[in-house]
Amino acid sequence: MEDVELGSVYTWRGALDGGARRRQIVADGLRVSRGVYLSSVVEPTLAERCRAWSRVLPAGAAFGLETAAELYALPTRCSPTVHAVVPAQKVLPQRRGLQMHVRQLEDEDVVAFEGLRVTSGEQTYLDLAGRTSAAELVVIGDALIRRGLLTAEGLARRLARADRVRGVVRARACAQMISALAMSRPESLMRYWLLISDLPDPEAQLPVHDRWGREVAHADLGYARWRVALEYEGRHHAERDQFGRDIDRYSLMAADGWLTLRFASRHVNGPTVLLDRTRRALVSRGWHPGA
Fold first, then answer.
1. Residues 156, 120: contact at Cβ < 8 Å?
2. What's the pTM value of the predicted model, to 2 decimals?
3. Which of 2, 126, 167, 285 has the maximum number of C-beta atoms within 10 A of its C-beta?
4. Coil, strand, or helix at residue 208?
């Protein structure tokens, strides 16, 4: 008897009903959960594993929280558990590796993403607000809006009907800090620490002009009034071509009177060094607290 076509995801019962032999299922399938399999010829990415999980989720369910964040490739920590949200019902699936969360969702709170039902960017942001710090929530919000997965208007609508939802106070406060101009997680963190300090609010992706008004560079963050620029230096800045471009950029900025502070990964997870050096730089350029 020849093997039958199983497909990329299938259930034990469905495969048997389709004519597969037990031996074929055992040899081919990667077990995702009890009775749910992913074909061994398919790369077991999170999206493919979620397709398998979809076979046992109740109607109306969608992948959410940390699982949605990972599907969206947000710069957050991954969870070994698959998270799904579902409208209130009497019995929820109980399976190892799957955690269900009851939510009151409207149609706009769920979107199609890579062929899966996933909570929208706005819903994902709200769900994670009660499970992460304010700094991390700004990182999440920046990444969502930068990638076109969230809009300011859509987020305002979702938060307006989120009374008494866990984390909504933090979600509303951090929503005021979200910016599509942050190009990376470190830039988001730097901006967050500055925004909650007593220092002036920084400008993101600040253009730097020479004396003839030509844009010669731009800073990750900065203060045009005091000509102070803040730059995050990731590993790619050590590459030869990028290093050369940085030399030109910093020289042009210095030639036109800009003071550039450069920060690395060890400086962005806490505010002490970032705020101290920025404060001293601003004071050296004429800024005074309370001004």
1. no
2. 0.88
3. 126
4. strand
CA 187 to chain centre: 13
Q: Go through the chain and tell me how many residues it has.
A: 291
Q: Which domains does the chain have, with CATH numbers?
A: 9-41 (no CATH), 57-175 (no CATH), 185-284 (3.40.960.10)
Tens digits of residue pLDDT in 139-161: 999 999 999 999 999 999 999 99
Continuous segment of H or E residues that includes residue 240? helix 240-255
Distance CA 177, CA 129 (A): 14
**3-class secondary structure, 185:** helix
Q: Decide if pLDDT at 200 tops 80.
A: yes
pLDDT of res. 39: 85
pLDDT of residue 237: 47
Residue type (1 letter), 268:
V
Per-residue pLDDT reduced to its tens digit, 36-54: 888 888 888 999 999 999 9
Q: Which of 203, 141, 197 has its CA nearest to residue 174?
A: 141
DSSP designation for 33: E
CA-CA distance, 143 to 71, in Å (whole number)?
13
Cα–Cα dist 118/66, whole Å: 11
The set of residues, in sequence order, having a beta carbon less than 8 Å from that of 121 and lying 6+ positions away, is: 72, 144, 145, 149, 150, 154, 155
32: phi then psi, degrees, rounded to nearest 5: -90, -40
Cα–Cα distance measured from residue 95 to residue 103, given in angstroms and rounded to the nearest whole number: 19
